[in-house]
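User: Could you go from structure to sequence for me? I need the amino acid at each position, not a summary. Structure tokens:
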């Protein structure tokens, strides 16, 4: 865990500002980040990145107020370590350890508490942001920089970079009790989601966390998580451990009930990168025993994927075996819950990738966020799918990804921009309120030092 004093934070911000001033005129402004959870390639740059050293810790946790001041490059792994020491957790903890708080706010994040707590940016109270003009401004929901505060989510660095964020926290249990509920159709699951969102209960039992997995068209599960009360007896059940030989996503089909420590619940998906560790043979028991536990992490797998993309290892093996060329289909989309069954039926027929992750969400408060315009009062379900599909010689033109974009938006949904996107400029501006984004960018980046969101997300600059 990395902690910083206020003085150390101020010194780190000074270094950041000095590195900005030192950039050559016209050079792209980017962070010098050691890790990334993005899945879209970008053009190489010879210009140095901004110095973010010393901006990766927790400055202060106020246990009484249930708030934390956190630096923008702090990973959720370090943030959770700091807050759990006070019996607290962020209102939403994205699934992967090395997602940063600043990244989750400027690039969106989601998890099982999103059906009641919304998205990570909705629990931000204020932010210090380095703008394209090379200034640090403090943005809050009201005041002189309220436009920047509201537009920052889903801007992916096109409006600047958060150096400090003050966020809300909630009380953390010691253990989390899980219940796996199976459904035979997506329509049944969607109806259950609507009922749980409305009542925060299932069959009289409180639901604090809600997500699920669709394994096959006739086999879908919701995982209902309940925060165990502080003095609730759990000693009769040994908490499960999915960092060893057992694999979490398989437990949904095997264990109707389960118990995890809160720490292990928060990172239950990280050990096997949901189910994507299977691509490296890690779900083979013999290989798993030889693979060090410290390497069973999403950031390790992400680096291996990056290595394959640079060297083309899988593509060469496919050619030797005579298999069709693969298209990488790595996306998270939000679909209104009443259109979920329709989308999954279409996805099964046109893409054919399973399993997929399901995570309900609603906007938490009576406000919208212009750069990712979800509707107030509407329950959405995030559908996450990450893998490859053999499509043949047309794979480079991304036919499956383009079809997904069209289908999602025909159903009134939205698509996250952490992966590849293919929109034309007019469509992109319509979906992500490009006119408003451009106006805010002009105010805080008058010389266009920062790459636009369209150039980042679609043109891969």
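Assistant: Here is the amino acid at each position, in order:
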């Amino acid at each position: 865990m990395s902690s910083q004093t206020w003085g150390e934070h101020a010194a780190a911000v000074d270094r950041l500002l000095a590195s900005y001033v030192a950039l050559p005129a016209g050079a792209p402004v980017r962070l010098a980040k050691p890790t990334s959870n993005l899945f879209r390639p970008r053009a190489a740059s010879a210009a140095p990145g901004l110095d973010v050293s010393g901006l990766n810790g927790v400055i202060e946790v106020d246990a009484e107020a249930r708030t934390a001041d956190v630096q923008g490059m702090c990973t959720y792994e370090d943030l959770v370590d700091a807050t759990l020491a006070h019996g607290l957790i962020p209102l939403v903890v994205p699934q992967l350890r090395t997602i940063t708080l600043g990244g989750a706010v400027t690039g969106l994040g989601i998890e099982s508490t999103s059906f009641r707590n919304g998205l990570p940016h909705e629990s931000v109270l204020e932010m210090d942001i380095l703008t394209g003009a090379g200034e640090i401004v403090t943005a809050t929901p009201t005041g002189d920089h309220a436009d920047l505060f509201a537009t920052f989510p889903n801007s992916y660095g096109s409006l600047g970079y958060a150096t400090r964020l003050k966020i809300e926290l909630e009380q953390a249990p010691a253990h989390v009790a899980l219940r796996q509920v199976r459904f035979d159709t997506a329509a049944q699951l969607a109806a259950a989601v609507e009922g749980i969102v409305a009542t925060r209960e299932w069959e009289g039992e409180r639901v604090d966390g809600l997500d699920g997995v669709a394994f096959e068209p006739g086999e879908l599960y919701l995982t209902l998580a309940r925060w165990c009360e502080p003095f609730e007896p759990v000693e009769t059940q040994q908490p499960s451990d999915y960092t060893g030989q057992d694999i979490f996503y398989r437990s949904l089909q095997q264990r109707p009930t389960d118990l995890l420590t809160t720490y292990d619940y928060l990172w239950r998906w990280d050990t096997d990168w949901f189910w994507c560790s299977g691509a490296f043979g890690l779900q083979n028991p013999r290989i798993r025993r030889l693979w060090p536990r410290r390497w069973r992490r999403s950031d390790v797998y992400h680096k291996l994927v990056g290595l394959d993309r640079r060297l083309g290892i899988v593509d060469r093996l496919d050619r030797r075996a005579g298999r069709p060329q693969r298209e990488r289909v790595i996306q998270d989309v939000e679909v209104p819950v009443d259109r979920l069954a329709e989308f999954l039926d279409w996805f099964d027929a046109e893409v054919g990738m399973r399993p997929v992750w399901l995570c309900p969400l609603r906007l938490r408060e009576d406000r919208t966020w212009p750069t990712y315009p979800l509707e107030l009062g509407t329950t959405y379900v995030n559908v996450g799918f990450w893998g490859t599909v053999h499509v043949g010689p047309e794979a480079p033109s991304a036919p499956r990804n383009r079809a997904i974009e069209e289908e999602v938006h025909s159903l009134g949904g939205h698509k996250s921009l952490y992966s590849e996107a293919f929109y034309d400029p007019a469509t992109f501006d319509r979906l992500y309120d490009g006119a408003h984004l451009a106006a805010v960018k002009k105010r805080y980046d008058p010389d266009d030092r920062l790459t636009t969101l369209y150039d980042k997300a679609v043109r891969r600059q």
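One structural detail worth keeping in mind: The first strand starts at residue 58 and ends at 62.
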